[in-house]
From TrEMBL:
The keyword Oxidoreductase applies. Keywords: Dioxygenase, Glycoprotein, Iron, Metal-binding, Oxidoreductase, Signal. This is Fe2OG dioxygenase domain-containing protein. GO terms for molecular function: iron ion binding; L-ascorbic acid binding; procollagen-lysine 5-dioxygenase activity. Gene3D superfamilies: q2cbj1_9rhob like domain. The keyword Mitochondrion does not apply. Its cofactor is L-ascorbate. InterPro entries: Collagen_mod_GT25 (IPR050757), GT_PLOD (IPR057589), IPNS-like_FE2OG_OXY (IPR044861), Oxoglu/Fe-dep_dioxygenase_dom (IPR005123), Pro_4_hyd_alph (IPR006620). Residues 625-717 form the Fe2OG dioxygenase domain. It comes from the Eukaryota. It holds the Pfam family 2OG-FeII_Oxy. One of its GO terms (cellular component) is endoplasmic reticulum.
């Protein structure tokens, strides 16, 4: 059989993620390459592939010399770190024989490293014209002839060496050297990403779809691919699917490779983790961010904490957290706004701090990254990759913490599968060129290179971009996983910390977080068909709607604003300037919160209204009068602690109790005169909803002690 007579060689001095992938792809097809140069200092120049691969060719020459007289022996030589096999050796050999060459090189669109040689190249009718030395196959005698054609130095450029041989017409003809112009066998990826597609089709056996690389320009399916030059990320992208990294039956096959299991390990044996938290910007819902970190299911006696807080606004949040919880962790290192340490430095410091603490795992989390899944840390460690991020997205948006592709200048570009990944229509493990906001790093990487290689610091460049660019340079793969849901990203864009209670204003930008904090935990129960609606008086309904936190925040917003109305009939805030039944109040628009409130009415109140007052639809609900009433008990007769009987100018009115009867105040309540029915036992965060006109003539009852706050809206006046 032909394949017994082929030698497969590569050169690699050390293990890298790319080398592991090369070996994995080889073993997928039972190819057993011989590795030359392993464990040696690289002697082929600074860039590991080229220029300066003379040493590679010398190693190959030495390896082939024992086979010199073996006229029928073939040799397949490829780079290692940036090559993937997509087919079996006998198929590779078959395609080689079809070309009639004695040596076949892969081709590429660039005349490199010496563009001046372009005119010396034979013209081609179709395909790429220039030689690339990263992949070739040939008969041993001819390959040895090629390698002996001239003296080679370690530092020489291997591609130039092979190019000169090819451009020597007599030599080319004698040795029958050809280029694989149209990618029948070899595909160099640099500059041709637009010709390459991932296709899926059933295997010969039938019942499973697998992925293949297709060159759609030449309609070929090359079976050895090479991420030469700037095309490493194209190769990484393809490597997410081929060879058999994905298929229609098993989904993400590469996800299941190399896993470790922490389940059942005693705490003392689980990896030591440094969790590094970065608060570099004012961020909504920071308390929840910290709590989610604290809720991670991982032994705290194996966790060191590092917190860089650059924002004064968050000092109390961080201090409250550390005062409460720091003791539970092995150590805590805190950098405060007063330390005035810039982000870049803090991030670099945290890497060193991890090593100081003899960490096994570094886990970096930015303040916008909400790790909702408490198993995230454990799952990421078990995935056992050098660098891996949990996929985090802005809910309902295309925004995420990874880039699927890179533009030429190293910025964001969208990959074909980006939306499928962001929306988790495809779940798996994705090798991508940029991750941020939350990721773990195996400390073996941090130990293997110092801060001159792995760091965040480059003047005027974003810290994450610098970091990822550094990792790309040393061939470290960055994975993002969406195997399960891990969490989401906060949108900090419109966070106005000059407001009192700024998170209350986040109902639009961070809707889910807003709901989690400010909507009553029992709100969904209002829609449970098994439950009977509470009706304390005829056509007055009673529902839990907002949290205690909401109530306190709204009171705080109003008290901080402080300009309570006088409670007289003259009210310059109203169009007519006259209020027949005045209260001491502050309107929502006075604190810039009316749009938020109207949205709240539409999203949370309207469904309740539609449920109890059947047949009335008014979407969105309109309301001009939205205000918080403060009723102080005073002995002075001119302070009105009650409200005389009246109708509201509304189709329906909502009335939310913001504080606690018999704790914060006594008395108070609302009496519906027509039914001789009062609601006095109001509950904080609960809403009363009743018709405004005709039937529900009502009065506010006397507050007999303390201060009562209620939130009122006259809906659809
Ligand atoms: O005090 C109450 O609960 C009733 C308030 C009221 O009816 C109003 O503000 O229009
Ligand atoms: Fe009223």
């Amino acid at each position: 059989k032909e394949t017994g007579d082929i030698l497969v060689y590569t050169v690699a001095t050390e293990e890298t993620n790319g080398f592991d992938r090369y070996l994995d792809s080889a073993s997928e097809f039972n190819i057993q390459p011989k590795i030359l140069g392993f464990g040696h200092e690289w002697r082929g120049g600074e860039v590991k592939t080229h220029p300066g691969g003379g040493w590679k060719l010398k190693l190959l020459k030495t390896a082939l010399e024992p086979f010199e007289g073996d006229d029928n022996k073939l040799v397949l030589f490829t780079d290692a770190y940036d090559v993937i096999f997509l087919g079996k050796l006998d198929e590779i050999v078959r395609r080689f024989h079809k070309t009639g060459a004695r040596i076949l090189f892969g081709a590429e669109p660039y005349c490199w490293p010496d563009a001046g040689l372009e005119t010396k190249y034979p013209e081609v009718k179709e395909g790429k014209r220039f030689l690339n030395s990263g992949m070739f196959i040939g008969y041993v005698p001819e390959v040895l002839k090629l390698l002996s054609r001239k003296e080679i130095d370690d530092q020489d450029d291997d591609q130039l060496f092979c190019t000169e041989a090819y451009l020597d017409e007599k030599f080319r003809e004698d040795a029958q050297i050809k280029l694989d112009h149209t990618n029948e066998l070899f595909q160099n990826l640099n500059g041709v990403a637009g010709e390459i597609e991932i296709i899926s089709k059933p295997t010969k056996e039938g019942d499973i779809d697998k992925y293949y690389v297709k060159n759609v320009l030449y309609q070929t399916e090359p079976i050895v691919i090479h991420g030469n030059g700037a095309s490493k990320h194209t190769l990484n992208y393809l490597g997410n699917y081929v060879p058999n990294a994905w298929n229609s039956v098993e989904g993400c096959r590469q996800c299941k490779k190399g896993l470790i299991n922490l389940e059942g390990l005693p705490s003392k044996d689980v990896p030591v983790v440094l969790i590094a938290l970065f608060i570099e910007h004012n961020t909504p819902f920071l308390e929840e961010f910290l709590n989610k970190i604290h809720n991670l299911q991982y032994p705290k006696e194996r966790i060191h904490l590092f917190i860089h807080n650059a924002m004064k606004f968050h000092t109390d949040h961080v201090n409250n957290f550390t005062e409460k919880h720091a003791k539970e962790y092995v150590t805590l290192k805190q950098i405060t706004p007063d330390d005035a340490i810039p982000e870049w430095t803090a991030r670099d410091l945290s890497l060193d701090h991890c090593l100081t603490k003899k960490c096994d795992i570094y886990f970096s989390v930015d303040s916008i990254a909400h790790i909702d899944n408490p198993y995230t840390l454990k799952l990421l460690i078990e995935q056992n990759r050098t660098v891996i991020a949990p996929l985090l997205t802005r809910p309902g948006k295309a925004w995420s913490n990874f880039w699927g592709a890179l533009s030429k200048d190293g910025f964001y570009a969208r990959s074909n599968d980006y939306m499928d990944i962001v929306h988790s229509e495809k779940r798996g493990l994705w090798n991508v060129p940029f991750i941020s906001n939350a990721y773990i790093i195996n400390s073996t990487l941090l130990k293997s290179r110092d801060r001159t290689v792995i760091n965040y610091t480059k003047p005027k460049v974003d810290a994450d971009m610098t970091f990822c660019s550094n990792l790309r340079k040393i061939d470290v793969f960055m994975y993002v996983s969406n195997r399960v849901d891990f969490g989401h990203l906060i949108n900090p864009d419109n966070f106005d910390t000059t407001r009192t209670e700024p998170d209350m204003y986040q109902i639009f930008d961070n809707a889910q977080d807003w709901e989690d904090r400010y909507i009553h935990v029992d709100y969904p129960e209002n829609f449970n068909p098994e439950k009977k609606d509470l009706q304390p008086c005829p056509d007055v309904y009673w529902f839990p709607i907002v949290s205690e936190r909401f109530c306190n925040s709204l009171i705080n917003m109003m008290e901080n604003f402080g300009k309570w109305s006088s409670g007289t009939n003259n009210d310059e805030r109203l169009v007519g300037g006259y209020e027949a039944v005045p209260t001491r109040d502050i309107h929502m628009n006075q604190v810039g919160w009316e749009p938020h409130w109207l949205h709240f009415l539409q999203k949370y109140v309207r469904p309740l209204q539609e449920k109890v007052f059947i047949g009335y639809y008014h979407d969105p609900p309109k309301s001009l009068m939205n205000f918080v009433v403060r009723e102080n008990y005073r002995y002075r007769p001119d302070e009105q602690p009650s409200l005389r009987p009246h109708h509201d100018s509304s189709t329906y009115t909502i009335n939310i109790a913001l504080n606690r009867r018999n704790v914060d105040y006594e008395g108070g309540g609302c009496k519906f005169i027509r039914y001789n029915c009062s609601v006095v036992d109001t509950k904080q965060g609960w809403l009363l909803i009743h018709p405004g006109r005709l039937t529900h003539f009502h009065e506010g009852l006397q507050v007999t002690n303390g201060t009562r706050y209620i939130m009122i809206s006259f809906v659809d006046p």
